[in-house]
Design a protein that fits this description.
GO cellular component, one term: mitochondrion
Shape: globular
Family: Belongs to the DCK/DGK family.
Protein name: Deoxynucleoside kinase domain-containing protein
Order of helices and strands: HEHEHHHEHHEH
Organism: Leptotrombidium deliense
Structural class: alpha/beta
Radius of gyration: 17 Å
Distance between the termini: 31 Å
CATH topology: Rossmann fold
Number of strands: 4
GO molecular function, one term: deoxynucleoside kinase activity
Number of domains: 1
Largest sheet: 4 strands, parallel
């Protein structure tokens, strides 16, 4: 089965879900989640090419993280995670919330599906949890991020209709990370 058929089948299934809920014109909000290097961007690009105007893609704001007042916060976080994880995660929450809002407000009259690369959920329950368990956040930093997360999640704009998780072997993810050669990620290992 080709990837295009799979994408169309997914779009059809989401349409069935909307019809079953009695929501004929509701635009579904979908987050695509997965490990770093699992293929989220490629999946979304292929989905966009296959479904054209029926889908609006909201990409992970990596370029914003690479230029915060002239500083590459993503690089700083990878270089010295103990020092920069808190600031980075706070900024991730802000930029992801902005994308949730953009996605919520978007309506061109054509798209029936709005898809975002990652969400506040993975920022909080994957990345922040990992940093906390690794000892890279203090208790007060963890609590601040958590409090902000719960405040942001009360917004209607953060509600999702579906989460697609791309499961990929860690070895494949690492190979893809090395192939795409994003400077900040060169220190990632298994």
């Amino acid at each position: 089965m080709s990837a295009k058929i799979t994408f169309r089948a997914l779009l059809f299934q989401l349409g069935v879900m909307a019809a079953n809920n009695g929501q004929k014109r509701k635009m579904f909000r979908v987050a695509v989640e997965g490990n770093i290097g699992c293929g989220k961007t490629s999946f979304l690009n292929n989905f966009s090419e296959t479904c054209k105007e029926k889908v609006k893609i909201f990409s992970e704001p990596v370029n914003k993280w690479r230029n915060v007042g002239g500083y590459n916060l993503l690089d700083l976080m990878y270089e010295d995670p103990k020092k920069w994880s808190f600031a980075f995660q706070q900024y991730v929450q802000l930029t992801m919330f902005q994308i949730h809002n953009e996605m919520s407000e978007y309506d061109d009259g054509k798209a029936v599906l709005k898809m975002m690369e990652r969400s506040l959920l993975s920022a909080r329950y994957c990345f922040v949890e990992n940093l906390w368990q690794s000892g890279l956040l203090t208790r007060v930093e963890y609590d601040i991020i958590d409090e902000w997360y719960h405040k942001l999640m009360k917004s209607e704009s953060t509600k999702l209709d579906c989460i697609i998780y791309l499961r990929t072997d860690p070895e494949v993810c690492l190979k893809r990370i090395k192939q795409r050669n994003r400077e900040e990620e060169q220190h990632i290992d298994l």
